[in-house]
Queue: 4 jobs
Job 1
Amino acid sequence: MLLENKVAIVTGGSRGIGYATVEAFLQEGATVVLCASRQETADQAVAKLKEADANAKVEGIFPNLSDYAAVQAAFDEVVNKYGKIDILVNNAGVSESTPFDKYTDETFDKVMDLNVRGVFNCSKAVSDHMIAAGSGVILNTSSMVSQYGQPAGIAYPTSKFAVNGFTLSLARELGPKGIRVNAVAPGITYTDMMRQVPKEVIDPMIAQIPLRRMGQPEDIANAFVFLASDKASYISGEVLHVDGLARS
């Protein structure tokens, strides 16, 4: 198994890509602590995972990712319990599509606080533990819109462009300390949000994808598994696009 004896934290792990990543990590032998926004959603996700496998080594926590002190306290508890954190997946995020002329400070700050400050807080909270261990993997969820933008909702692509810069810079800084930092940039992925989009909207989008299908959460989770594993031991500072597109 690729992640045997590893301890991983996955933020935004109660649904969608995060939940699929938790499942994949468990299947590869990891102990996983999933972060959710509320105790209820964390408990529900853990119960569902244990229903599928009663022996699953998983638990849920729900710190406010925009509050560094809360994140640090929660992550310190993970280290106290398991002795280490080998992998952090910064997956929690929020998207929105407000037109620019309707934007407010609150709308912009809500996206940036979770999508950027949350990544910063979680990475900072694990970095001391990983530096002390001389190893570790930090993985961030970017997006295809960090490269292409989107028609409305300016804060989301802005936040993901920031995640790319954070990933590349932190990889350069922490690499000498034995820590790899990478990102995965999903394309159109069949999550709960996409299930609400009408077929007449989705079909033209799929027509632009050479593989002629949307991604599944498992497609993104598999990329996280690879980057978290020793199979990717010489890969750092990369933003891996998992979007079915062909690039020159």
Job 2
Amino acid sequence: MSATLITIIVLVVIVLILVSVYNKLVKLRNHRENAFADIDVQLKQRYDLIPQIVETVKGYAKHEKETLTRVIELRNQAVAATTIDGKIAAENQLSSALSGLKVTLEAYPDLKANRNFLQLQEEMSDIENKLASVRRFFNSATKEFNNAVQTFPSNIIAGMFGFSKAPMFDLGSERATHEATPKISF
């Protein structure tokens, strides 16, 4: 074999490897974005349900208006978020506010017995469980993408084409609040 033929074969192999790794990175990025789209579906259901819950609660808890207003404001901010990072931050704030709303609701035994409220609470609980599931899926897709971006040799190709490590969907600054042992009092 001539040196020219060997050089051409080596170049073809390098190009094929480059194309293969690049395509893998694109697929992983798209898989991650699809996983976040699944989160968006669940968030849309959550956003649609929150006003119904708030209106039901308002009938019983008129003096808790500040908490309810804050939940609606955070819901609107979450709906308005346009980037994945922005949505993650807005969702963390909304989740925290919803936790506060749940504590507020505990003070109203009549409300907890209301059939409409119970149904809404059940739906909200179901959506929160689904959200937790799709967030885990998103984080799994993000981990897979980040592994490809950071491991050799795909990290070289990722750097060449602008792929970079992507953020996980986590609790961020709210972690300490959610890790604390809940206080139960009667």
Job 3
Amino acid sequence: MDQEHELLSLSPLDGRYREKCAELAPIFSEYGLMRYRVQVEIEWLLKLAAEPGIAECPPPGDDAGEFLRNLAADFSIADAARIKELEATTRHDVKAVEYFLKEQLSQKPELNPHLEFVHFACTTWDINNLAYALMLRDGREALAAALAQLVEALTAMSEQFAAQPMLSRTHGQPASPTTMGKELANFVWRLQRELNKFRKVELLGKINGAVGNYNAHVAAYPDVEWPGLARDFVESFGLGWNPYTTQIEPYDSFAEYCAALSRLNTIVLDLDRDLWTYISLGYFRQRAVAGEVGSSTMPHKVNPIDFENSEGNAGVANSLLHHLAEKLPISRLQRDLSDSTVLRNFGIALGYSLLAFRSTLAGLGKLELDAEIIDADIDGCWEILAEAIQTVMRRHDVPEPYEKLKELTRGRKVNEAAIRAFVKKLDIPDESRQSLLQLTPRTYLGKAIDLAGSIRSHLD
């Protein structure tokens, strides 16, 4: 796409952000949909030709078989343009694909007997449901690859900062300490778990005719075991077979796919907001990029634009994914067309998701930890040891431990001297007292360091 066309693009994914999600264009564009339709039509024709009970559609020779498969493998922009020309007359996109294929087959005399077996016994959605399932399958590979890069980058940072103490904040207020590595490990685990589930969503397909009963199939060839043939055909694409449908495959698996992807987007959005906050607190600096401007009026600014970009794009993606998941499984009686136009937006939903993942990854690559600021923050919060002290007091049956620490610390800044003075007066075994006296905000970390350092061992 030249610059003029990019500047005239209605969608930012085809203009401003095209380079960041370019690999999805051949999959989810109208060209891509046509290509998958051609693939399904050709494979269905070859499946019929391989069925002994369909004598009128003989198996093509090697040369003709290669020619047929190359129609899909070598499908070009020129081929797609020809289909659009045919659609201008048919006013039906799938029928245009059928006529295009018949034009192509007519070039091979050996395939003349096969012409009327193109789109044989099929309703439009026998082709479309499989084409869209294949699009989603291939699109998932691109998204999973980007997510795997993000998970790996976060894992490396979790290991790198496993031992960096950090003040937690619950409700925005100082809380029990953690480490930066442990907080990043939380997101590693969440993302990897949901990525595994996203990869395992089984996309379903069907090829059973106008209302799902093989009516036309049986009328033409009553002795063919159509459900078994249909199942073999659908599963040959690596898809799951749905034996019970109306005219359309009801998209429950598509909804599951959307829900799984939206959960991943939500986790990325949550990560974006946490990293944005850590940058705001000064815990991370961002490396300045030569020539880049942070503000049109404030020269000093280095804004967290990658995380903000990701947050916005994840939100747009989820709005679409939620609508797709809620809309698609609903169809009046055996068929209505309200799903048809909605399905064409899968590429947009996945495109904004991919853009979000890559923006977050780009942001991670610019971060530099500022240990001095993090340490200063935690060093000034001795009141966070109140939890540890009152818990040890509970162990030794000291009356009202929580209440005593509440009186000392709630809503107050408490320094090291006050904490140590309180501990020295406690009626507890000397071993426990010494242990508490040695405790500092930086060392009150529980298993945070171990949890962060071992995150890789928990990944599948």
Job 4
Amino acid sequence: MSVLDTQSIADAVESAIGSIACRIESGCLRALEQARAKESRASAAFALDVMLDNARLAERESRPVCQDTGMVIVFVELGQQVRLQGALLDDAIHAAVARAYRPLRKSVLDPITRVNTGDNTPAVIHTSIVAGDSVKLEIMLKGFGSENMSAVTLLNPAQGLECAKDFIVDTVARAASNPCPPVIVGVGLGGTLEKACLLSKHALMRSVGTPNPDAQLDELERELLARINALGIGAQGFGGDTTALAVHIERFATHISSLPVAVNILCHCSRSATIVLQGE
């Protein structure tokens, strides 16, 4: 059994937000550079140049990489052998978000009154209990130009995987230039309505450019990426070769009478970090 104060978790979250608000995830940045190197359309190449210049300037000057500093998503994997002490875990994370956003744009509000909470809280926190004596934090700042383009459906299983593929590609096609492409496409297959959505969001935490450890899903990701890039939407909707930088898929068992499919779209500036804290 190890002991970890939730203040340590809060400090890690606060520090991570300050950093990732100003930089694109390294795999995503490499993918943008590769997309620029092979781009054949002048207007799309110009858009990619602007994206890369913006990313480098933001990191160098410690400025937010996007004016939409997003809503904070935190996936917590809590080791079963860890005993937390101090403030409640969620309270500690919310307090960390409030501190981290003092110099950043606050975009979170009540859905009915539309009154801003004033500190970008609450964060969206998903906690799971796992084996071990450490705490893993996966943190993302999710902008809503891309979030608003996401979609979920529950297919009849007779429609099969081909229909699921069409839904994924069509979702990106309908989004067009709205989510600031080239995008990263997170896909959740299976589970229930809410599980599929959760899978699709968590899929976006994987570093761009890393293969799916599931060989079957890796092949499916490659197929879908090719289909999506054939849409010709291109960088910022200017056409060209790269509409998506990656497709990331996670799956879960589902009921015999359904095939849930969720698509969560992420813009070209993936802002995320993974931190592991060890108890004492």
